[in-house]
Amino acid sequence: MTSETTETGRMDSGVRAGAALSNTDLALRALDIRRQVIEFAHSYPDTPFHLGGSLSCAEIMAVLLGAVMKTGVDDTPWEERDRLVLSKGHASLALWPALFQAGLLSEDDLAKGVFGPEAVIGKQPRRDTSRGIELSGGSLGMGLGYAAGLALAARRKGLPSRIYCVMGDGECDEGSVWEAASFAGHNRLGSLMVVIDANGLQLDGPTSQVLDSGPLTGKFAAFGFDVQQVDGHDVAALANVLTTRSDRPLVVVAHTIKGKGLSFAENDVKWHDRCLDEDGYRRAVAELEAARKEVLDRDE
After folding, report:
1. What pLDDT, on the 0 to 100 scale, is given for residue 7?
2. Domains (ranges, CATH) in the chain?
3. What is the distance, to the nearest Å, from the Cα of residue 223 to the centroid of all Cα atoms in its chain?
4. Which end of the chain is more exposed for a tag (fewer CB within 10 A), N or C?
5. The Cα angle at residue 90 between residues 211 and 290, in degrees rounded to 5
6. Mean pLDDT of 9-23
7. Measuring CA to CA, which residue among 189, 190, 199 is closest to residue 166?
């Protein structure tokens, strides 16, 4: 049973936590995440949002929270739940609908919006572990160190929890990332999995031009990680690689497209942080509805 987006863009809460999801279900969930991202932006037309990076990680979020993680609202005891650390906090617009799909956020939580004294979600994450929000976001490069600490704590407590840290490829410019990677590799934190949303763009342009630091796979391997690469928009491939187990920390470089799902935003750095006007909103709705029909037709 999956969530569905209504004609007004509101996500129906037809979610059964812990239900087995097919690849079609996961693909539809990713589309629902994208739809909710643009609904958030449409609700605040004068506010720029980080749309490009939120759209690029939709499948990553859908698969992690829909097919991989033990969320604590399934049959897993809350203390033994897996943790998701969104290090690229500017992609929080994709996190909220994914947490809703998993049963960790309510419809009322989403309805309160992104801003204001009653809001429980935001343009950047604010730590609220009761809702599965493990880290306050904003400054890039902080999440991996926090996730490594969670992994070490889980080991010392004898907990089966796995820790998932979602980062951006541009974020890997930060020196703190490699300090944390060294710590994780040295301590062989096998419960830690890093997922890099490698869309090739960051605020100032292509990552290869802003700071070309070489292949991420080789760098993480040098710090003692097992390394995998995957098409970050292939839900089946993501589900397969994100259930990999190792006695070392694992990094998955997920190759994605910034602005994925909106033809006018894909691979365009201007959509890193931008307002969505009415024309863009209507085009986005039409394209996402067409993509939904294509997924459903393919499943017949």
Report:
1. 46
2. 23-299 (3.40.50.970)
3. 24
4. C
5. 105
6. 57
7. 199
